[in-house]
Amino acid sequence: MSARAPIRGYRAGFLFAVALLSAVAGFTLWTEVRTGQQVDALVREALDREQLIGRIRVDVFSLESAIEAHIRARDDEERQAANAVMEDILESIRRSTEASTRNLPPGEKAAWQRFNASCRTLADQTRATAVLSLRQEAERARHHLAERIRPLLLEVDTQATQLAQENSAETQELVANLAAMRVRTTMLGAGVTLVAVLVSLLVGWHITSVLRRQEGTIQRQIEELGRANQELDSFTRRVAHDLMGPLAPLKGYLTLIRRTGAVQDDGALEMLAQCESSAVRMGELIEALLRFCRAGTRGERTSAELDTTVSTVLLELSQTAAAQGVALERELEPGVRVDCPNQLLQVVARNLVSNAVKYTAGRPSPSVSVCVASVGSEAVLEVKDNGMGMSAATRSSLFQPFFRAPEARGLPGHGLGLATAKRLVEAHGGTLSVESQEGVGTTMTVRFPRLSPVVAALPELAPAARKVAP
Predict the structure, then answer these.
(1) CB 313 within 8 A of CB 279
(2) Tens digit of each residue's pLDDT (9 = 90 or more) over 91-123
(3) CATH no. for 4-206
């Protein structure tokens, strides 16, 4: 419970840091987009107002020319044309002023309202001048133009210039405020990011410390387990060796009693034979146990040819296979050398081939195929049969000591052969795998690192100098 609580705390801290970083990234992105949109809108509005102010100033100067043209007109037709031009200019000024005052903040409307009032006064005075011109009172119209309209034109132009300056200054101020807000947002995001990074570093440091402590604990436990296994193997070897001491004379005495003829009763002779058989089986079991214990440690570093060893084993088992009607097929590649003593290779090969023969006998057309080959940098021994096969549950426990499959309970054996073979193979850097299907057969595959011919020919080299063949 105490170990799980810190893990949950570290996980929560890590998720908190990730959430902070995600929130900062999202907030910064949203702020940048929003600020950019606001800046674009402000710049667009400022440009539109600047354009409207410029158009009003142009219309104001055009209006003076239109009024003079109306006053100089020689007939009614020219006056009507000049009057239409003036009305168009006045309507353009009206539309421009209305458009420029739309969506203005309350604090900015006062200046624009004064500007609109000046524009309306200018329009009224312009129409009054046009009336005088239509009455053919040119002098009064010119006087009205000089005394009333031109000062208004200058006033409107001056107000337009001030509005343009104010519009530019306000736009710059707003953009500066937005830029300052962006800087504050960026600083806030940087601070939160720094906090998240510090939290992440703290969590990572704590997790690294926990993992380092756990790694040390696991390493110590592995070392203790190795020492315990070594002590157990040593104890088992001593016990097995001590058991062989009283068992040997027991077998000898039983054999002598049976052969001397001192016992004539048939029942007693049968019991002696059973005792002798039991003593033999006990001796075989103890020897198998000794081989299993020795199999976990590597023997002397000598190499042997796998094909030669397998040939010797096949020669020994050929008569047993023939007696049980099992055909032995072989395909042995010559010169396949591995870093394992010959006698240990024989133990492995004998276990695999004898098991294949034993569990194949009695099947229709029984056969066992033995193959030795070089595959890349590996030496491979494959023993394949068409025997009874194994279930998945049997395969999962196949290499456990003293394990006997349910389908093999009626056959002789101690349950140590495959366990011994696997320990021998792994002690010399190899692997032993099994593939099997019930009613179809079994394939046992042993893989050893293959020695190159140069290394195999130099036994005096140190073990560390041996190289696996490329």
Answers:
(1) no
(2) 887 777 777 666 666 556 666 667 777 777 777
(3) 1.20.120.1730
